[in-house]
Amino acid sequence: xxxxxxxxxLTGHAVGGVCPFAVxxxxxxxxxxxxxxxxxVFPACGSSNSAIELTCAQLEQFASNFCGWADVCKLPAPGAxxx
Length: 83
Prior knowledge:
Layout: H1 4-11, E1 29-32, H2 56-62, E2 66-70
Parallel strand pairs: 1-2
């Protein structure tokens, strides 16, 4: 896990605003398959107090350095208690 200063140096965005838009050159952007279960998503836009509503198709279209979809998020089992 990166510390906040490392995350900002790598992506160009401070923690809380890390997003797939306008990232530093060389940063590969992958979107998690789990996002596709939503009709729209609200990614940050570079600051902790900004967000934008997008469909997954729009998110893929506008993400900088988009490399593909990845399946890395483990969803809770149906009926499992969530915190």
